[in-house]
Write a structure and sequence with these properties.
The complex is a heterodimer of chains A (331) and B (312). Chain A is built from 9 helices and 17 strands. Chain A is an alpha+beta fold and 331 residues long. The longest helix of chain A has 18 residues. The chains are: A alpha+beta (331), B mainly alpha (312).
Chain lengths: 331, 312
């Protein structure tokens, strides 16, 4: 296991900047989740570490050693691909054996067998081991592809949306399982996802990427409770943070242009009137769509609320975020 | 695999079946005729109207593999019951076998040159196709077009320059020369076909193999090659069929040591009258290797032809 450092890494694909003077330190044994929309550079940063792509400038260190000029095999990283990339001409078992049989590892046969047995149990694919890799459902393929990484003991695991095509139940199970494997083995793990529950529950650190730059890096709570910008604040939270003109409520600081309100930053029953435009019952919570001074906002209310469309609810902000005109946090 | 949504009706199946049988008859008939002629006697082979039912004999096969001389009248009348069956066949016509013909030699030449050139065309073609598919090759499209353009004229159009070139290089009538020539002609086909097949294989598989601890070549060998096997097999069939059947250049460039079977088979006819059964026997044997090769790779061939359509 090892620490991974990006040092001023820049990568362009033709004229598109994927990573722009990108620096980040992934501490040994940490579980880092990268957040950002498509094109923010998440996958590119994984590919840089793995050696599949080379930086135009800058350097990457794994465990204190510069990776410049090393092949993917020499870097000893394991990667779970978004598109699974299972070897279609091999069975599930052969797919799992593949990294262990590489000329680099040359694992003894009995060790391979026990390792595969163990991983297959965890991923619930033991009964599929002799299937062709192409004769699996999407969820099973994804589990095999995770398994192919887990059979190894690399310096870092790289995972590109590994749980995206699993059903909710399995996803919840594997989330816990991955987290357990990671904390037990002390593995360093770099993880790309769009799913905020995965980010909040598994990550020790979250990196927020915006067009190839790291805009904020910290614990999930820190990112959630103390975002540095509107962009950062919008990455986490369901429903999303409401961004409104700052002057809509009294008491905004002078330099604030926007106010950011997460559902828990909106106190109901006090303050000014707003109109309920829509109610969504999600079971454990109810989402309230409000119209406040002709601005729309969404908040959460009691699961068994008696409110109806057209009702009036009083609201006031509680310790909101304030942002300047460029979206940077001011208070 | 994708299947048609509706099962064809019995009538549709009948129509489709009869069309296939009709087409098969048209294409198979000349072939059957050659095979049948190979087992006819000389008289039966030129009988008019043509004989469909006849007394089969292996005379043609004996003739194609042997050289025979006419016996004098008194020698021909000697009893020959204790002689081997092939000698008896010759004696019945008043001939005697004086040695093996050059047919097996020519046939072996065809095997060496046909399979040799196919091997090199496939190895070089796969390497080139992989490079075109995976690396940034400068002027890639122009190069691919240039490679294809060598196929745009009939090979015989360049026969004279090749003849002169081969004479100066000492490649005339050599196995190496013919293998080189057929490899060169087949290479464009091999590069284009295999390039298409490798393009269909997502690069992610190789990337996964690189990360799993394999070198680029090992990834190619362990991951790309097995998946391209289907395409490579069907390309090999096309290459072999061309090299095996090539006639014009073989006539021009070979005469003795490296002569292949196609230019040799017509010469059989000149020995001792018009020996059609021997020609047909030679042609029948000549068909066997290609048929065996095609049948062995048949599974791949079918998948190769429908490759792009059913994969996704």
């Amino acid at each position: 296991m090892a620490e991974v450092i990006f040092k001023n890494v820049t990568k362009k694909f033709d004229s598109d900047i994927a990573l722009d003077n990108f620096s980040m330190t992934v501490a040994d044994g940490s579980f880092v989740v990268l957040l950002g929309p498509t094109g923010a550079g998440k996958t590119t940063s994984l590919r840089m570490i793995s050696g599949l792509d080379k930086p135009d400038s800058g350097e990457i260190f794994i465990g204190g050693h510069s990776m410049t000029g090393l092949t993917p095999a020499q870097r000893n990283v394991a990667m779970v691909f978004q598109q699974y990339s299972l070897y279609p001409h091999l069975t599930v078992r052969e797919n799992l054996e593949f990294p262990l049989k590489s000329p680099l590892l040359k694992t003894p046969a009995d060790e391979i067998a026990s390792k595969i047995h163990e991983v297959a149990e965890v991923l619930q694919i033991s009964h599929k081991l002799d299937n062709k890799a192409t004769a699996l459902s999407g969820g099973e393929m994804q589990r095999v592809s995770i398994g192919r990484a887990l059979v190894r003991n690399p310096s870092i695991y790289l995972m590109d949306e590994p749980l995206s095509s699993l059903d909710a139940k399995l996803r919840a199970d594997l989330r816990i399982e991955l987290k357990r494997i990671q904390s037990k083995s002390g593995a360093t793990l770099l993880y790309v996802t769009h799913d905020q529950i995965e980010a909040m529950t598994m990550a020790t650190h979250v990196g927020v990427l915006d067009r190839g730059k790291l805009v904020q890096f910290g614990s999930p709570r820190e990112i959630y409770e103390n975002p540095v910008s509107i962009y950062s604040a919008s990455r986490l939270g369901q429903p999303r943070v409401n961004i409104l003109p700052a002057t809509i409520f009294a008491g905004a600081p002078d330099n604030a242009a926007k106010i950011g309100l997460r559902p828990e930053q909106i106190v109901q029953g006090e303050g000014e009137d707003s109109l309920v435009t829509r109610i969504e019952h999600l079971g454990d919570q109810t989402r309230l769509h409000l119209s406040f001074k002709s601005h729309d906002l969404i908040t959460v209310t009691d699961a068994h609320t008696q409110l109806n469309e057209g009702d009036i609810v009083k609201i006031r902000p509680e310790k909101p975020f304030y942002f300047d005109a460029d979206g940077a946090r001011t208070a | 695999m994708s299947f048609s949504v509706t099962e064809p009706s019995v009538r549709q199946k009948w129509i489709a079946g009869s069309l296939v049988i009709f087409y098969a008859l048209i294409t198979m008939l000349p072939l059957l005729w050659i095979v049948a002629t190979g087992f006819k006697s000389s008289t039966d082979s030129i009988a008019y109207p043509p004989k469909i039912l006849f007394q089969p004999t292996v005379e043609g096969y004996v003739n194609v593999f042997t050289t025979q001389t006419r016996l004098s009248a008194e020698l021909a009348e000697q009893p020959h019951d204790d002689l081997p069956w092939y000698e008896q066949l010759a004696r019945n016509k008043g001939n005697t076998i004086v040695g093996a013909s050059r047919y097996s030699e020519r046939f072996l030449n065809s095997v060496i040159i046909g399979f040799g050139s196919t091997f090199f065309a496939i190895v070089l073609g796969t390497a080139a196709a992989y490079a075109f598919s995976r690396f940034k090759v400068p002027l890639k499209d122009d190069l691919l077009f240039f490679i294809l353009s060598t196929r745009m004229m009939p090979p015989i159009a360049v026969a004279i320059p090749i003849f002169l070139m081969f004479r100066n290089l000492g490649l005339n009538d050599t196995h190496a020369g013919m293998i080189l020539l057929y490899t060169a002609i087949n290479l464009s086909l091999a590069v284009w076909l295999i390039n298409g097949f490798i393009d269909e294989i997502p690069i992610e598989y190789e990337e996964a193999a690189l990360i799993d601890g394999y070198t680029r070549f090992q990834a190619f060998y362990k991951v790309v090659l097995p998946q391209a096997a289907t395409g490579i097999a069907s390309t090999a069939i096309f290459c072999l069929i061309f090299a095996w059947n090539e006639y014009a250049l073989a006539v021009l460039l070979t005469s003795g040591t490296a002569q292949t079977a196609p230019p040799f088979i017509p010469t059989i006819i000149g020995v001792g009258g018009q020996d059609w059964p021997a020609v047909a026997a030679g042609a029948t044997i000549f068909l066997v290797p290609v048929m065996v090769f095609t049948i062995l790779l048949r599974k791949h061939l079918l998948r190769g032809i429908t490759f792009g359509a059913v994969r996704k």
